Amino acid sequence: MTKDIILAGVGGQGILSIATVIGEAALKEGLHIKQAEVHGMSQRGGDVQSNLRISSEEIASDLIPLGCADLIISLEPMEALRYLPYLSNSGWIVTSTTPFINIPNYPDQEKILAELRSLNNVIMIDVEAIAREAGNARGSNIVLLGACSHLLGIAPVKFEEGIRRIFARKGDDIVEMNIKAFRAGEQAAK
Amino acid sequence: MKNKKLLLGDEAIAVGAVNSGITGVYAYPGTPSTEITEYIQTLPLAREKGIQCRWCTNEKTAMEAALGVSYVGQRALVCMKHVGMNVAADAFVNSAMSGVNGGLIVVTADDPSMHSSQNEQDSRFYGKFAFIPVLEPSNQQEAYDMISYGYTLSEENDIPVLMRVTTRMAHSRAIVEINAEPQPRKPISFPKNPYSWILLPANSRKKYPLLLENYKHLEEIAVASEWNRYIDGKDKSVGIIACGIAYNYLCENIDSSFAHPVLKISQYPLPASLVRKMASECDRILVMEEGQPFVEETVKGVLPATCKITGRLTGDLPRVGELTPDSVRKALGLAPHDTFAVSDNVVARPPALCQGCGHRDMYAALNKALEEYPDHKVFSDIGCYTLGALPPFKAINSTIDMGASITMARGAADGGLYPSVAVIGDSTFTHSGITGLLDAANVNADIVVVISDNLTTGMTGGQDSAGTNKLEAICKAVGVAPDHVRVVIPLAKNMEEIEKVIKEEIAYHGTSVIIPRRECIQTAKRHSKEKQSK
User: Fold this and answer.
1) Residue A29, domain extent
2) pTM, to two decimals
3) Would you call A40 and B350 a contact, using CB atoms and an 8 Å cutoff?
């Protein structure tokens, strides 16, 4: 089992917390992991991405080659398209549909959504609305994780266990809020 | 105690150093090296052992403090980004002359592709320049293991050790097996030969030939090192030299059918005899290395050779930027993977100052105040406020290195520029700005220095800033007239007042300092969260 995943978004959106949950679950499963992150200047509202590779075999490169990603998980629709050359022909995109507009020349939103829809394997969801409905407005990233959990090669219940471990020190309420957000995302992707 | 952890390369280095019994880590924040020190600051074991881990004022003070630890027979770690090596260079190069007593490792994190830096300098040159051995791990496990090896190498050979990592090693996580019991701090002991630490010319002249001799010995060690491996192959049409993480990109693209000889290099001085062996057997050598063509140039030389040397200099790999699995694939002559086309609906999203950031208000006021002086120039510095170069502010004319704002403004004023303005952050000011301000004050240079004080080292994620609560006192102490050290609060509602202060100080024909002071909104958010959770 090998999953090459590109996590995308805008600096400050919190893509790394998605990587943390997946990484934690993969570690518990005894899988190999490599996860390249971006720190520094681009975290100030620029485009950010993380290359996450999990595999039952040893992993060589920290970076995913072009045309090899099994999955692009994006908290922002234009950012999902930015990494299209990395997606394999049979790969999936799971993206939030809410644009993050912090530049004056943000492209026509309709064109972005239309291009996404034209691809074969795409799950587009309004993660922010779902997070709000689930009573966890700041849980968009966990909703997105739920929405792609069936594509990660690890049983979704393992991510719930991961969420419980990671958020345990923040108290039961926070754990339950995040489990709810995760399940809402899972449901939305069906 | 075997224990598997998911660690950044930086964190693996941190754990390796703590387990090696260091007395302290000495560092100034700089991407991509920051997380080494930050991780040590969070480790309970480091607290328990009383490991010194407070940020230093700059890389030179860090390097020298570590040298002091070494003098008393204990182990120390120094960390910096590649350009920090330029600041630490005086101490670094001369530490090879003094040698070490306790083990000393300097970690430098290079940033090819300039993700968060102003150049692509390759720190391996510093190692060669100073006759200091270099370790270049190819993965996070090696980074961890090499720290313990490095301390032994340092102590056995009376020499500091340079560990060079690059962005994709520093900022990539992998599972690391922590397999050693933490060692205790060493007791105080003094150098056997105290004269070797007094670099008077008479002593240095004795030491220098020994240093050169030692470097030859270090090359022999590198040839036999477990970190350098010659993997033979039947197909001698080409041999591959893969340095550091380039080895990973090679492995990504090949399988067990790959039949070319490979020399994996992770320890320098360059193991020349292994390179000669490859050259004597192969028609061509392809050198894969992250950063500048350090090995390729050395191997190639200037005279004609029987073996063709290819790599970044011949265009087989890109001359600039970091390596990728794809550029290495191309160099190996393998067909590229099928890909989707680049989307037409994607535009660049450059970084920007955060909404609500005090630097924004500072630049808004500065631009307004300077409107009536079309000939003005603003010399800026390294930090978040460098983003003032981009729209909507377009407020600065230069950014060169840490500290070059005040000094350049002074020089430009000497040449007749008016108004000549410097913009520098609080952390950069204490890192490398104070001496420049002293120069300016000594000639009462006609400049306005804006120290945009957000009470932190912002760009690298909000580390403590060495001069917090001391800036006015420092400025006055170096000789700026007390009336011309002004503090304002950069908020939209104070715009008129700030503009007025700037105009007054431009009108004053001497050295003046304006300190717009408001906490970084990122650290302010963090602090209010911490308060809430208490």
Assistant:
1) 2-188
2) 0.96
3) no
